[in-house]
Amino acid sequence: MTMRYRLFGRTGLRVSEVVLGTMILDDERELRRVLDTYAEAGGNFVDTASCYGRSEDLLGAVLTDRDRFVLGTKYTVSHDRDDPNASGNHRKNLVGSLERSLRRLRTDHVDVYWVHVWDRHTPIEETMRALDDVVRAGKVLYVGVSDAPAWLVAQANTLANWRGWTPFAGLQVPYSLIWRDAERELLPMAEAFGMSVTAWAPLGGGALTGTSTRAAPESLSAKDRPVAEAVWAVAGELGVSAAQVALAWTRRRAPVLPIVGVRDADQLANSLGAVDLVLPDDVVDRLEAATGFEAGFPTDFISQCETDPFVFGNTAPAVGGRPRWTGSQPAGDR
């Protein structure tokens, strides 16, 4: 197994190409096994959140080699449903949530602090300034944003760049063969701002693994079933697991780092097999054809315009320009 590392956004931070998700791990002994397996494979990027039950507490107990890992956690979600200020992206919840996370994680700083979800009621200026303050205080090293529209993230980073605040270096979104919506606006936006993307649910919420869905295909929707069956067929042909195929596809998409959430070390070891799996182009075409995905307007319309002499003249096909996000490419070329 050859774990590679990527720079986190436009920073010098090195993060492994597979992220360890800890949301469903609730046993301290098994978490130790999982972390050992992950570290032995070269993994170093661990993802948690303030709302993930015991996750932060358990990580604080088992991360004895704290500096070996890039530790990221998130805030936004309510910790007291009767308190209107116990959720959201405003300064009060940001600071309070961070302090609780630091106590649980038994550390004086987190490497990446994520806004968990867009809060429509908090001005983005307040959030970005508050994030910059905790970075300047040394309690946070880098910041990222999860589950927010592309226009908002673009606004936030433009604002941060203008005012000398810390911009978002990472974007976290759901992304898999089953859920490709991020290709429309979010992935191109991330590339334009030089942001790393961490993908949650890269296995389609378990639909693509085949572990339970093969035995109960009726549990899959009419839309998802052809995709899952294509993944299972490719896995059989290549002699690998369905999870490895699904993760290998996600890793092809520049600049995506899949978050692998597991229940035990054996499940993690299987998923990490995707690191060395390179899918042939014809296989990728088959998998993507099964999704029936269309980018829609304006992406498809603009692509048509780029080669239309009516729009850009007869020389349009001969014009080169700055690189732009074009979809899948081999992981080795990223």
UniProtKB/TrEMBL annotation:
Keywords: Oxidoreductase. Pfam families: Aldo_ket_red. SUPFAM superfamilies: NAD(P)-linked oxidoreductase. Transmembrane segments: none annotated. InterPro entries: AKR, AKR_Detox_Biosynth, NAD(P)_OxRdtase_dom_sf, NADP_OxRdtase_dom. It comes from the Bacteria. Residues 18-290 form the NADP-dependent oxidoreductase domain. This is Oxidoreductase. It comes from Actinoalloteichus caeruleus DSM 43889.
